[in-house]
Design brief:
four-stranded antiparallel sheet, ATP binding, 10 helices, Alpha-Beta Plaits, nucleotide-binding, eight-stranded mixed sheet, alpha+beta, EC 2.7.1.148, 12 strands
Length: about 290
Amino acid sequence: MKKIKVKAYAKINLSLDVLGKRKDGYHEISTVMQSIDLADILEFEKSEIVKVFCSGHRVPEGEDNLIVKVINFLKEKYQIEEGVLVRLDKKIPLAAGLAGGSADAAATIVALDKLWNLNMSADEKKEIALKVGADVPFCLEGGTKLAKGIGEIFEDLNVPHMNLLLVKPDIEIFTKKIYDKWDRLNFKSHHATCSVVQAIQEGNIYKIAENIKNDLELVTSRECEVINQIKEELLKKGALGCAMSGSGPTVYGIFDDLQKLIKAYKDLEGIYSFVFFSKTIDKGLELYE
């Protein structure tokens, strides 16, 4: 096998409770994470060198690029001599709260396991994923999950199909900065996750939409007032409920009326830098060999 292609799906948070800072610097959270059909496409090909080519977007270089971080980690761990060429067709916006970098890292773990015949177990893949980033273990599996700890302790959920509109203003948000401000401002959690889980278990899209909430909005919206503006616009245009994903700044709205969603998409696509009609899906990665 010389070449592998992977579709790496983005995620949103249907809830995000920040429960406190741990001694290792990470934060204890309780969140419902949900895969959506927005995806990066990655192609991996055996090579003598390590090189990542990216179309259309500025991406970090060196170890700041999670793809490179995974490649270097696996080369060292398994004493791999050869390199790999990675072609990344970037569709998930950078620093958007959608786990684009984490999805790419998860895709790299799975692709190199096959390309280099590493035969890693599921537990080994998850262990490596957690060393790379808190969202990477979820991106390996995807679907709908209640996640605790730093986001690595999972319980599977079965969410009803939902149509979404994603809106990202032309700003980038960096997760560490937002968590640092959360600590300094001494906010308290909304504890929305329990209500969202209950609504999912009931299969009630209206109750889900009513209860979605993200603690980090309290921080990010103070810096970026446009987040509240987007939420107001989505609600006026027929969203059942809306919330920010991750540390932001992407906001998503849940719609039960497809015509209202399409009209909202057309109204907002010329105003904001990224507007995407999306839906919930049940996987994090898709391989094409």
